């Protein structure tokens, strides 16, 4: 298990986009976050520019100085008041080191203490068993199920 010292969350920089592009060429990563195709570098640039006008909070994940993924907390119309959803993606080469656990624990604390949310949601695709195990371990509870996804929730009060 990695310590907090080796994992860093920071603001996304333009120069991170080539790493995100590389990470997302892997079907084991892009298919899990609901992309049908791997993104092009132009898609990544467009996404980066869209962040300025959006209400989402997005961070680059660094592991020992290497960009290994990103994570975000975002609002959506389908969510109840005082709620947000989060998403995370990590380079497959770095799975299983405890990075996802540390980052999710930090996101939960941030959602609760800084954003003062009442609950935090996530959606996980059926078959994404690594992610499901992680979320159950952290205390997320089943909320609803569709034909493709399970929605889970962590209530804060
Ligand atoms: C889900 C994801 C973020 C987990 O990140 P990670 O850094 O591998 O997470 P951790 O190392 O903290 O492992 C978390 C749990 O995942 C499981 N897991 C991770 N890697 C594993 C591996 N190689 N073999 C078996 N289980 C594994 C374990 O259950 C582990 O918990 P445990 O160590 O207590 O048993 C990462 O796999 C990922 O980015 N996947 C692709 C995108 C995605 O699925 N995003 C989430 C969409 S809902």
Q: Major sheet: size, sense and barrel closure?
A: 7 strands, mixed
Q: Globular, elongated, flat, extended or rod-shaped: what is the shape?
A: globular
Helix content: 25-40%
Beta-strand content estimate:
25-35%
What small molecules are bound in this structure? coenzyme A
Structural class: alpha+beta
- From the 3D coordinates, which CATH architecture would you assign? 3-Layer(aba) Sandwich
Q: In the CATH hierarchy, what is the class?
A: Alpha Beta
C-alpha end-to-end distance: 29 Å
Overall number of structural domains? 1
Largest sheet strand order: 1-2-3-4-5-7-6
Radius of gyration: 15 Å
CATH homologous group name:
Gcn5-related N-acetyltransferase (GNAT)
Kindly report the CATH topology: Aminopeptidase
Summarize, please.
It contains five helices and seven strands. It is α+β, with helices and mostly antiparallel strands and 157 residues long.
């Amino acid at each position: 298990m990695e310590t907090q010292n080796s994992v860093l969350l920071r603001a996304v920089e333009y120069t991170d986009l080539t790493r995100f592009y590389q990470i997302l060429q892997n079907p084991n990563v892009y298919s899990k976050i609901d992309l049908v195709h791997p993104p092009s570098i132009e898609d990544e640039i467009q996404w980066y520019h869209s962040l300025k006008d959006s209400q989402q909070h997005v961070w680059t994940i660094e592991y020992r100085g290497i960009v290994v993924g990103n994570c975000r907390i975002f609002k959506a119309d389908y969510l109840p008041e005082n709620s947000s959803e989060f998403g995370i993606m990590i380079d497959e080469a770095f799975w299983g080191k405890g990075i996802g656990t540390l980052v999710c624990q930090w996101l939960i604390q941030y959602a609760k203490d800084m954003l003062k949310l009442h609950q935090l949601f996530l959606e996980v695709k059926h078959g994404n068993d690594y992610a499901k195990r992680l979320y159950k371990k952290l205390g997320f509870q089943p909320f609803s199920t569709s034909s493709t996804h399970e929605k889970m929730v962590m209530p804060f009060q």
